[in-house]
Design brief:
single chain, mainly alpha, Ferritin
């Protein structure tokens, strides 16, 4: 695992520090969103079955809404981080780290909610994600106003996901925030 993560860090460094930085940075941004979607998708393998059995509030979206929404959001994330990076590539390490951190949290939520079936863990992950995305909106927006605006639908969706995660109940016995065995 350590060798693989070291290799990934080396690839990211290469992508962001070679003479072809703009094209490679855009490729890295798209790859980051794509990898996040793939890892999150693996965690959400059971989502259709789990989501169908949840007691959801009336404002919960239909299952068919999630794919198109996430496709659009991942595209906006990639363009936003690229635009923010492009404004000052030499001073982008913090931005790239923040973006990578929120992508990791994003990919973790489906694992917590659909695979572990732990609403408590999912709420912890999504709360951290909310904070990371809000920070990225601010950091990216200071570098490139459009980049900040491109991330606001993602922040809105993340906050909505937090509310939905808190509101659902799982009658099939999955652990929830009110379940003492989940602490």
């Amino acid at each position: 695992m350590g060798e693989r993560s070291g290799r990934s860090a080396g690839i990211c460094k290469l992508l962001l520090t070679t003479e072809h930085r703009p094209a490679r940075a855009l490729l890295a941004a798209v790859a980051g969103s794509t990898l996040t979607a793939a890892v999150g998708g693996l965690g959400a393998r059971r989502a259709p079955t789990v989501y169908k059995h949840l007691d959801k509030p009336g404002w919960a979206p239909p299952p068919s809404a999630f794919g198109p929404v996430w496709t659009g959001l991942y595209g906006l994330m990639a363009v936003a981080v690229y635009r923010a990076w492009r404004s000052n590539p030499e001073r982008s390490a913090g931005l790239v780290a923040l973006h990578g951190g929120q992508l990791a949290l994003n990919a973790s939520w489906p694992w917590a909610f659909f695979s572990l079936r732990s609403r408590t863990a999912a709420l912890a992950v999504v709360a951290a994600l909310d904070a990371a995305v809000a920070a990225e909106v601010i950091v990216a927006g200071r570098r490139d106003r459009v980049a900040g605006w491109l991330l606001t639908p993602y922040l809105a969706w993340s906050l909505f996901a937090t509310a939905l995660t808190a509101a659902v109940e799982d009658p099939t016995g999955a652990r929830s925030a009110s379940d003492p065995s989940d602490r």
